[in-house]
Amino acid sequence: MAAETHPITLRFRGHTKVVPLRHGLGLQVLGKDCEWLEFDCRKADCGICIVRVKEGAENLSPPTVPEADFLKAMHAAPDERLACQCRAFGPLTLEIDDYT
Ligand code: FES
Question: Domains of the chain (ranges plus CATH)?
Answer without folding.
Answer: 5-95 (3.10.20.30)
